[in-house]
Amino acid sequence: MENVNAKNLSLIDQYIFKLSLADILRSTMFGTIIVLIKDITRLPLSLPGHSSIFWMGVLVLGKGLLPKFGSGIIMGIVSGILAVFLGLGKEGFFVFFKYFMPGLLIDFLAPMFYNKLDRPIVGIICGILTSLSKMAVNVALGIFLKLPLVFLTIGLGFTSVSHVVFGAAGGLIATIMIKRLKSRLSSWD
What we know:
- Helix content is 73%, strand content 0%.
- The protein is mainly alpha-helical.
- It has one domain: Arp2/3 complex 21 kDa subunit ARPC3 (Orthogonal Bundle).
- The longest helix is centred in the last third of the chain and has 27 residues, at 156-182.
- The two termini are 24 Å apart.
């Protein structure tokens, strides 16, 4: 009996971040949805960060439904690779980091709140911080690549506020969806 438990434990240790194959596939699904929503919802609002309401919402939703460490990183990697292949953004290959960094950040933020992303304040905080991390990557890439940063002429303050507002809205929407879906997805564990 002890040999069987040791064998099962060694199989679990072989998974990436101790995620099962099903968890990796679900994280990949959410990463794909992030890019599809970003590409489809190109609203001509002329507000910086307006896509965060959808993008960060899906990221927080994915992390809320898959609370294991590594799921955010996988969502970020998958969405970053797809963004590069679909040609999203003017940064070329470096657009990968705009998608990867929020995924990395959500993996470190969620455990700080005991993975309680179904609570509105936690979802709002995570949505805000991941949206601001995307903005920080935008600024860093713009400076590094010497791109014309139009939003810096408007003011970094306005850009930050809009990222905060849209990230908070996305996080709040995600908490509502997590509460509704978690009870229906009891077979996910």
